[in-house]
């Protein structure tokens, strides 16, 4: 069994901890995915988020309609244009998520040891005694003694805005539960999660397909976050669906692992997906608390060795309402980076949080400091050992490029690519310096017209740790681009360049 532990660089001078960080030409190499919503949808706030370090904007369709998200996206485009900061778009599906419908949107108070009935009759009003849910088969899926969690962002154990229920008895299609903690639920929709219970609903629902084929196609989404991925077949079905939607055949699928069922089939899912999102909110419910860290480390390690991005969620929940994270949260972010995570995904913190810009900035600074003490030498040796010999030509060139760049203390690696594969392979070996991925557009035709590709590949680098994309001008040959790179010698004097165009 391969070790999942990556040690800090040694030695670390304790006095150096207090030294101020020197300004860098590049931001932190770890990427930040920000969820846009009520508190982060204006052009001004989105612009500030981009400047703070957000490189992927997530649109969560478990709430809000298509028009709402379209207006937010238009604001994102305006912010990108004004800040000149590239940003990718991620569509997060609803999937087989169970929801409580609260039409009146009035706050609902639940008292510990009281009883509440979950009913599939959505015509009824939500109250402290009765909660309408979006799934008619819950009574057939659960049994007395089972655990159900409910809230805007699910149960964390320390908040009073989500509730823990225990199934008491079943009455037809209704489920009678005992309330285990006092809580107040607010908003129009609450998420419901039955711990370690299989819900007989498709991973990609008809509602999801409708949103993807309309909003997704219109906006040429870069990433599809496939919620509640439980089997490799879920990813294959999603990819087959995307392949029929023109430009979305290039959209990358990130499998969102948030249940024991997805954890059980993790290896097969990883083979099929383009990347993995570890949804620790739901996983923290399905898994015992003492097991969550072990799964995180093992999953990130497997993603690293496969050269596929690993994204971690739920790291600074307290920043939803506070300007600073807790000590434990700051350490959690750092440990995620030291484990090898490619990106941090912020949900409630930027969606409805009071300090979306400050949250992105704070997480970025923690990532930057963590990267400075990441033990790249040990990571490199582990990765090379895992790949084994004989290496493929592609792996050999990528690993050699990183080794050479480190030996000559290069400031940056520049990689020419058209598919993005070469750049991702180099990033797989976690070089200590940024990788500038210069995407060379390719000419393609659909028999009716000619067009250039490359925008997808450039934006999809924005979720990979250490990759910074640049889309080349298709009107000029590669030789001219190389002459442009002389400009970087003036800014970054110890540069090491590699032409990986032959790798594609």
UniProtKB/TrEMBL annotation:
Tell me the cofactors it needs: K(+)
Q: Keyword Transport, does the record have it?
A: no
**A Pfam family in this protein?**
PK
Q: Which GO terms describe its molecular function?
A: ATP binding; kinase activity; magnesium ion binding; potassium ion binding; pyruvate kinase activity
What taxonomic ancestry is recorded?
Eukaryota, Viridiplantae, Streptophyta, Embryophyta, Tracheophyta
Q: Which NCBIfam families match?
A: pyruv_kin
Keywords carried by this UniProt record: ATP-binding, Glycolysis, Kinase, Magnesium, Metal-binding, Nucleotide-binding, Pyruvate, Transferase
According to UniProt, the reaction catalysed is: pyruvate + ATP = phosphoenolpyruvate + ADP + H(+)
Q: Which InterPro entries match?
A: Pyr_Knase (IPR001697), Pyrv/PenolPyrv_kinase-like_dom (IPR015813), Pyrv_kinase-like_dom_sf (IPR040442), Pyrv_Knase-like_insert_dom_sf (IPR011037), Pyrv_Knase_brl (IPR015793), Pyrv_Knase_C (IPR015795), Pyrv_Knase_C_sf (IPR036918), Pyrv_Knase_insert_dom_sf (IPR015806)
Record EC number: 2.7.1.40
Q: Give start and end of each Pyruvate kinase barrel domain.
A: 30-360
Q: In which pathway does it act?
A: Carbohydrate degradation; glycolysis; pyruvate from D-glyceraldehyde 3-phosphate: step 5/5
Entry keyword Metal-binding: yes
Protein name per its UniProtKB record: Pyruvate kinase
Q: Which PANTHER family match?
A: PYRUVATE KINASE
Q: Which family does it belong to?
A: Belongs to the pyruvate kinase family.
Q: Where does the record place the Pyruvate kinase C-terminal domain?
A: 395-474
- The scientific name of the source species is Canna indica (Indian-shot)
């Amino acid at each position: 069994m391969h070790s999942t532990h990556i040690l800090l660089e040694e030695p670390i001078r304790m006095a150096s901890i207090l030294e101020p960080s020197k300004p860098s030409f590049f931001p932190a190499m770890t990427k930040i995915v920000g969820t846009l919503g009520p508190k982060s949808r204006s052009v001004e706030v989105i612009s500030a988020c981009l400047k703070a370090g957000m490189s992927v904007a997530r649109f969560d369709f478990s709430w809000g309609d298509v028009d709402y998200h379209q207006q937010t996206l238009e604001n994102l485009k305006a912010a990108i244009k004004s800040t000149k900061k590239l940003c990718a778009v991620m569509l997060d599906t609803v999937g087989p998520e169970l929801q409580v419908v609260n039409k009146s949107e009035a706050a609902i108070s639940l008292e510990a040891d009281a009883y509440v009935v979950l009913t599939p009759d959505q015509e009824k009003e939500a109250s402290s005694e009765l909660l309408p849910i979006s799934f008619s088969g819950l009574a057939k899926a659960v049994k007395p003694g089972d655990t159900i969690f409910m809230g805007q962002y699910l149960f964390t154990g320390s908040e009073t805005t989500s509730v823990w229920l225990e199934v008491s008895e079943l009455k037809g299609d209704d489920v009678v539960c005992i309330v285990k903690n006092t809580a107040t639920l607010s908003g129009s929709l609450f998420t419901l999660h039955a711990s370690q219970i299989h819900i007989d609903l498709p991973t990609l629902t008809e509602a999801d397909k409708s949103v993807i084929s309309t909003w997704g196609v219109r906006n040429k989404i870069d990433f599809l976050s496939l919620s509640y991925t439980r089997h490799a077949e879920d990813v294959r079905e999603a990819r087959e669906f995307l392949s029929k939607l023109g430009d979305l055949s290039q959209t990358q699928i990130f499998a969102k692992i948030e249940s024991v069922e997805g954890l059980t089939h993790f290896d097969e899912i990883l083979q099929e997906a383009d990347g993995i999102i570890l949804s620790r909110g739901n996983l923290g419910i399905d898994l015992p608390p003492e097991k969550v860290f072990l799964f995180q480390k093992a999953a990130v390690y497997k993603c690293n060795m496969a050269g596929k991005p690993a994204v971690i969620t739920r790291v600074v929940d307290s920043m939803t309402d506070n300007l600073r994270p807790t000590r434990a949260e700051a350490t959690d972010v750092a440990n995620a980076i030291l484990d090898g995570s490619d990106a941090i995904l912020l949900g409630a913190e930027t969606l409805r949080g009071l300090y979306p810009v400050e949250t992105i900035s704070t997480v970025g600074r923690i990532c930057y400091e963590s990267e400075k003490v990441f033990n790249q030498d040990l990571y490199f040796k582990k990765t090379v050992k895992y790949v084994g010999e004989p290496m493929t030509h592609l792996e050999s060139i990528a690993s050699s490029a990183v080794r050479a760049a480190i030996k000559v203390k290069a400031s940056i690696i520049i990689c020419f690519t058209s598919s993005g594969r070469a750049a991702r392979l180099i990033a797989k070996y976690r070089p200590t310096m940024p990788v500038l991925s210069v995407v060379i557009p390719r000419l393609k035709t659909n028999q009716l017209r000619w067009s250039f590709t490359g925008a997808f590949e450039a934006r999809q680098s924005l979720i990979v740790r250490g990759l910074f994309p640049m889309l080349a001008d298709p009107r000029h040959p590669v030789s001219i681009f190389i002459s442009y790179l002389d400009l970087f010698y003036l800014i970054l004097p110890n540069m090491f360049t590699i032409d990986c165009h032959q790798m594609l």
